[in-house]
Amino acid sequence: MKVAFYTLGCKLNQAETESLASRFSRAGFQLVPPDDHADIYIANTCTVTHIADRKSRHWLRLARRRNPQALIIATGCYAQRNRRELAELADLIVDNEEKDHLLTLTQTFSPERNGLSDSETKQPQMTVTTARTRSLIKIQDGCHSGCTYCVVPRVRPYEYSLPASRIVDEVKQKVALRYKEVVLTGTKVGTYRDNNTDLRNLIQRILTSTGIERLRLSSLQPLEISSGFLTLWHDERLCRHFHLALQSGSETVLRRMRRSYSLDQYQRTVNLIKDTILDAAITTDIMVGFPGESDEEFEQSYSFCQQAGFANIHVFPYSPRPETAAAGMPKQIEDKIKQERNQRMLELSRSSRRKFYEQFLGQTMPVLWEKETSPGNSIYSGLTGNYIRVLAHSEKHLNNEIVPVKLIGFHNQEMWGELVNENPG
Questions:
Q1: Where are the beta strands (DSSP E) in 16-104?
Q2: Do residues 321 and 150 make contact, with C-beta atoms less than 8 angstroms apart?
Q3: SS (HEC) of 246-303
Q4: Which domains does the chain have, with CATH numbers?
Q5: pLDDT tens digits, residue range 360-405?
Q6: pTM value surpassing 0.70
Q7: 415, 387 Cβ separation under 8 angstroms
Q8: Residue 178 CA to chain centroid, in angstroms?
C-alpha cells in the first residue's frame, strides 16, 4: 500500500505530517512522493490565504487524476474551516482535532484497501527520506490571540502544550535515527507550559538530556524574549536564528491588526537580541495591503524594515479570510496596489539578506549539509546555525554532516563556501 503526503503552510503542519508519515510507515505503508502514483493521498492543508486554499484544491484534483481508485483524504486547517468546499474533492475529511487518529480512521474508512496482516503492521519500515538532517517536533498547538486578519483561532482554537517528558523522548528518538537538528514548533511556541516547565525550562532539559547537535526554534513573539531567556544561547547547539513576525512596520496598522506589541517594543527586542548574540539572524513576516493601509503607512512599514537589518523578510499580500474582522473592514486595497507593494518589499528582502550575508564573508562557520543540488553534481546545499544558505563543492559525501566551511562569495541569494575539513564525520 502506497501513501503520499502533501503539506502546505506552517512548520507546525510540516511537523504534524512528519509524525503522521512515521506512523503510516511503521504500520507497513510505503511512503512515496506527493506526485507519485499512490493508493492513498493525504493533503495536510493550510487556509491562512486564499492561495493556500487554491493549492490544496488543485493537488486533490491532481491526486484523483493520478489514481481514480485511490483513497483521497483532506486534513488540516482548510478541512477544519470549510468541509463543504472539499467534499467533492476528498473521500475523507479529517479536522485538526482528529488528525492524530488519521491512521486508524483511514483503516476504518476503507478496510478493503488495507491488505496488511497483523504481523506486517508491527514491522517498522523506512520512509522515503534519503537523508535525515532536520526534524520538526510539535510542542504546542492552538491560538486565541484574536488578530483581526487571522483565521487560525477558528481552525486551531484550543491552546495546549505537549508533555515535556514526551518531547524530550522524541528528541532522543530523532538522535537515534541520526537527525542532526531538531526544530521546536507550534502555533505559539513561546507560550509553552507543561505544569512548571516553560519554554526556557524545556530547552534546558533537551540540551541537558539529549545528544542533539542542533536545536532551533520556529517562531517567537517579541514580548516572549528576555535577557534571561537569551542566556540559553551560551550553548552553541542552540541555533542563532530568531523568527519574529512583525506583520507591519506601521504603528497604526499594527493597532488595526490588533497585534500584541508596539513598534517600540519590537525594536527593543531586536536590539536586545543583536546586543546579546552578535551573529544572530532575525527574520520576519511582513504583510502588505492590509485594509486601509495608506501610502504613508506602507512607507512607514518599508522604512522600519529597512533600518531593522533583517536577515530575511517573508513578504505576502493581505488575503481576506472568512469571518475575520479585517475581511469586513472598509478601504480594502486593490490587487494592483498590493502587487506593487509586494514587489517593493521583496526587493528589500533580497537586499537585506545580501547585506546580512556580507558580514560573514571570509568567516568559517559550521554548516549542516542537506543534499546535492542535483544528483551527482557534487555541489551540496546546507544551512549555518544562523540560517545562511551555503553551497560548496565536495567529491566526498556530505549529506547529514556538520562540516565547517569558509564563506568566500555569493551565488544568487546564497553563499559559496570552501570546505575547511574534507574529512566529514
A1: 30-32, 40-45, 71-76, 92-94
A2: yes
A3: CECCCHHHHHHHCCCCCHHHHHHHHHHHHHHCCCCEEEEEEEECCCCCCHHHHHHHHH
A4: 2-121 (3.40.50.2300), 134-358 (3.80.30.20), 364-419 (2.40.50)
A5: 999 999 999 999 999 889 999 999 999 999 999 999 999 999 999 9
A6: yes
A7: no
A8: 21
